[in-house]
Specification:
Largest sheet: 10 strands, mixed
Number of helices: 12
Distance between the termini: 47 Å
Helix content: 40-55%
């Protein structure tokens, strides 16, 4: 079978990176190489990763950033060092089913695809399963633009860790330099360029939901949701898809930007920054959009947007009960 490189970025993950490396080493298809990028850790993560990699017997490289530059930069560094035909990105606090790599590569080769994806299982820090995301995907593959369209409605999520990418399809500096929400645009662009995307309708990747992570906590980073949404709109316009995919983009803006921004801010409790976030989300919410969402049959999304626009206190009370 073709060779696959594995990239693992880590920052202060000494307590989890060994388990992650063990999960990669347990894959039924042995990776050609593992590249760990230590992004300025201060807890000895690089040493832990080296010990685990030596025990695995898999060829490896550990690259150390002199300072913390963020997961996007770490992934770019790892990507630049890859020599395999395929690339799999793995987060240092996650694990995967031993069948993931062989299943994705077999699906990609069978479909003659540029990307292969599996579904995602969310787990807590103790490993308890919280739920399964995405799908169902009854077909063995879809054209790349179809998968790209699925991203906008969350039928497929933009997690790079649940996907295997043909290396030649990825630019050298694929990930944009941002603190969070760095996956969506790069994955969207690759899927738009891909001929076929192979689908494995099983949750083979365990995504660990950690309290305090950038993606789960409220702070300045959350405003990046709006920035990404604007950039995605520009990307669709540049690709000539703004008009034919207008309804899909509308769904994306509310599902993945406006409502998550308001939700995260309100759950964090009152604060000047949170109040500003809610005002921004409300200001970008339009009654015409609420009507369009309703006409598309997206009643829950339309109702949430309408309540946020009309009565943010009521919206906050609903969130408190969830």
């Amino acid at each position: 079978m073709s060779s696959a490189s594995v990239v693992i970025p880590v920052f202060n993950g000494a307590g989890v990176v060994g388990r992650c490396v063990a999960s990669v080493a347990a894959q039924r298809l042995r990776p050609a190489e593992v590249i760990v990028v230590d992004d300025g850790s201060t807890d000895g993560s690089a040493a832990v990763a080296r010990d685990a990699l030596r025990a695995s017997g898999i060829p490896f490289t550990v690259v150390e950033h002199g300072r913390n530059r963020g997961v996007a930069a770490a992934r770019n560094t790892g990507l630049a060092a890859c020599t395999g035909e395929w690339v799999w990105f793995v987060d240092s606090d996650d694990t995967a089913d031993p069948r993931l790599l062989v299943a994705l590569l077999a699906a990609a080769q069978s479909a003659r695809a540029d990307v292969a994806a599996c579904r995602t299982r969310r787990v807590d820090e103790a490993g308890a399963v919280l739920g399964v995301e995405e799908g169902p995907w009854p077909d063995p593959w879809v054209p790349g633009p179809v998968a790209a369209r699925w991203l906008l409605s969350n039928r497929m999520r933009a997690y790079v860790c649940t996907k295997l990418f043909r290396r030649e399809l990825l630019p050298e500096r694929w990930f944009p330099d941002r603190l969070a929400h760095e996956d969506f645009r790069p994955v969207l662009g690759v899927l738009l360029a891909a001929g076929r995307v192979a689908l494995v309708d099983e949750p083979l990747y365990d995504y660990t939901l950690r309290s305090g992570s950038l993606s789960a906590s409220f702070g300045e980073n959350v405003f990046g949701l709006l920035e990404v949404a604007d950039e995605v709109g520009a990307d669709l316009r540049a690709a000539g898809l703004a008009e034919p995919w207008a309804d899909d983009y509308l769904t994306y803006r509310y599902l993945n930007a406006l409502l998550p921004l308001a939700n995260t801010a309100l759950r964090a409790g009152p604060s000047p920054l949170g109040d500003h976030a809610v005002r921004l989300a409300r200001g970008r919410t339009a009654w015409g959009d609420v009507v369009r969402l309703g006409l598309r049959g997206q009643w829950r999304l339309a109702t949430a947007a309408g309540v946020l626009k009309a009565a943010p206190r009521a919206y906050s009370a609903v969130l408190a009960r969830r």
